[in-house]
Amino acid sequence: MTNPRKATKTVTLLLTALLASNAQAQSGLHWLSESSGKPDSGSGTGFGSNTISLTLPIERGERGAEQVTTAFHLDRTEFRWKGVNAADKEYYWLSVPIRYQQRRGSGTSFMVRFEPGVMTDLDGVDSDHLAANLELVGRTDHRLGFWQFGVVVDREFGNFSPRPVLGVALKTAGGTEMLLGFPQTRIQTPWGRDVSTYLHARPGGGVWREKHDALPKETFDVEYTNWRIGVGAEFRWRDNWWLNAELGTLRNRQIRATDSSGGTAVDVKATPGSHTYWMIGVNLRL
pTM for the full model? Predict the structure, then answer.
């Protein structure tokens, strides 16, 4: 007869492994493109973007109930904002995601994710360009997975305001793994050992700090708010390499930047519509 406590622990470990791979950008290379369209309101005659992301694992260590992983991450984002003289450079986020997790007694655990980095247009890098994401999460096991709660500060919301983390993780008898909550919801179903499909909802914006030639002594922020809701598939290519494709819709979007073409700083804003996006890439799972 199956030991209920042992079964609960096994399910929790499997779900933790799934969520760990999605708590930060997956190791690998990804290309995401947002379709262009006229903003619903604000400045400009069209808006879209392209982002290339690279994440490389640095180290993974385990000791007893503790686990630490570190990686190198690079995003390169380019906006296609027609009709305005703002957010017209290449923007970079270079960071080192660090994740620490510890299992405690009585079916509880906690996780800390700290991601220091530099947000820049490469025209200048100083202390003003430093930033960090931070997530503190506690988890309590239940029969089919765990509950989680905590707080997160993440530039993907388009600012650095703190927000709650709430959710429940489940695994069904058919193998479907689910994280339902905020700020991420993900439902993933395996179809054998080499194929899986998923539904994913999460924030996908960012913050970048830039310098303008007309005002060299000042720095300005580009802030992009955006939620992505998409469906995708993963295919095992060879060994630990997986091919990934995703298609979805963009919601609750806003872009804000600075136009200094006239010699003074002028705020420029727009609310892009609910357009589509696609993403392709290759993931490395160790």
Answer: 0.87
